[in-house]
Design brief:
The protein is mainly alpha-helical. It is built from 18 helices and no strands. It folds into 3 domains: 61 residues, no CATH class; 183 residues, no CATH class; 133 residues, no CATH class. The relative contact order is 0.09.
Length: 422
């Protein structure tokens, strides 16, 4: 059905015939086809028809407004499988929890989401097979690494391999069309939405946990140990899967929370980052000699970078220049300054204290971020000066993402070998 929709993407008559012949199959395959041809005006109109009514509510005829049994069943099955895998250290006492979770937790969650999109977007057999081989190959590699708790290179591998899994999730999200740049931007937006919905679900879970434990405490039943080892694990693992269902099937295009939060927090983060730089200068604190301060500095850099990218991704490419653009440019500029300071600090530590896997990995990541930010700032300023479309900026943002993935794979695979697992 997906291929039929793509072949008829520019023919309203053929699409109407396909829909009337097999409405259920058409609805299920439409978004996968749309991800590959979202430049088609006909498919854009069909997306509005299927997922929005004239009043802005979800259309009942599309089936997207209902909690469909198939979608719920898929989420339940994936959550149970992922939760059970996450509980393996509890089933087998010989499995060390720290070792297991450092290597497998991210993969378990992302693997469940990959399976979700492979089913929902009807990925072809070839795409599903390639994704499976790459994913299980990465998981196998992590679990075959030596058990050295003090090894920097192995810790870096465990931190960087999930970025590769995240890229595989993007391929499943796009139903294999990984070269589709507009589709990549949709994937960036999906990440923002799933983070917001997962956070809301987890907050609700914390409240439910407190109420449950409090009520059972009143009747003198101690269920804390069982609850945290069972319900909390399954619930925490299920949160991003349920969030994906809510964002993809229930909310759809009706209302997006992440763009609103981006608009609210962009000026707040800009003020915070500026105040932090000024306070750092006044207090004469420097990341050049303080390792913990440098780590916090890089954490701030990553958070602000993510907000920059997401804020710009939600802006659109044809909207007129507005005050929000000044805020975005200011945030990118401040982030670039933070990155320059971090780069200088890392180079100082390299030349003063020698080379280590951690320092080289952080240096490479900061260089990549610097290039990304510099391109974003250049294209954004050119938009302001020449009043051109922001299409080139969007293409730069998403076109650069594979660079991060390549670097992460290099760190995860090559660093343990180069440094002899030290």
């Amino acid at each position: 059905m997906k291929e039929k929709i793509l072949q008829a993407a520019d023919s309203p008559r053929e699409l109407e015939a396909l829909y009337r012949a097999q409405p259920k199959e058409f609805n299920q395959a439409f978004m996968a086809a749309y991800a590959e041809r979202n430049d088609s005006l006909v498919l854009q109109a069909w997306k509005e028809r299927l997922f929005l009514s004239a009043t802005g509510a979800m259309s009942e005829s599309s089936g997207a407004s209902r909690w469909r049994i198939g979608d719920i069943s898929l989420v339940i099955v994936l959550s149970l499988i992922a939760g059970t895998l996450a509980k393996l250290p509890h089933f087998f006492s010989a499995v060390n929890e720290n070792w297991f979770y450092s290597r497998n937790l991210a993969g378990i969650v992302i693997g469940a989401l990959i399976a979700y999109f492979c089913f929902q977007r009807q990925c072809g057999k070839k795409t599903a097979a390639i994704l499976s081989i790459l994913f299980f190959g990465g998981m196998l590699y992590l679990n075959l690494l030596p058990d050295k708790s003090i090894s920097q290179s192995i810790a870096l591998a465990c931190l960087h391999m999930p970025v590769f899994f995240w890229a595989l999730l993007g391929v499943s999200f796009l139903a294999g069309s990984w070269q589709n740049l507009p589709g990549r931007m949709d994937y960036v937006r999906y990440n923002g939405e799933v983070v917001v919905y997962s956070t809301v679900i987890l907050i609700g879970g914390v409240v439910l946990t407190a109420l449950t434990l409090g009520l059972f405490e009143l009747i003198e039943l101690k269920i804390e140990q069982w609850y945290f080892k069972t319900v909390a694990i399954y619930g925490g693992i299920a949160a991003p899967i349920v969030a994906t269902l809510i964002g993809e099937r229930i909310v759809g295009t009706r209302f997006k929370i992440a763009p609103l939060l981006a608009k609210v927090f962009t000026p707040l983060f800009l003020v915070m980052a500026l105040a932090y730089l000024v306070a750092m200068a006044i207090q004469q604190k420097s990341p050049f000699t303080d390792r913990d301060f440098l780590i916090a500095f890089n954490g701030l850099l990553l958070v602000v970078l993510a907000l920059c990218v997401f804020s710009i991704s939600e802006r659109g490419t044809t909207a007129r220049f507005a005050v929000a653009d000044f805020l975005n440019i200011g945030l990118v500029l401040v982030t670039l300054i933070i990155d320059l300071i971090a780069l200088a600090a890392i180079l100082f530590r390299l030349t003063s204290y020698g080379y280590t896997p951690n320092r080289l990995a952080v240096l490479g990541a900061n260089l990549l971020v610097f290039c990304h930010l510099a391109g974003i700032l250049y294209l954004y300023v050119r938009f302001v000066v020449k009043r051109q479309s922001l299409t080139s900026l969007d293409q730069w943002i998403v076109g650069y993402l594979p660079v991060y993935v390549i670097w992460s794979v290099f760190v995860a695979v090559a660093f343990p070998l180069i440094f002899s697992f030290k």
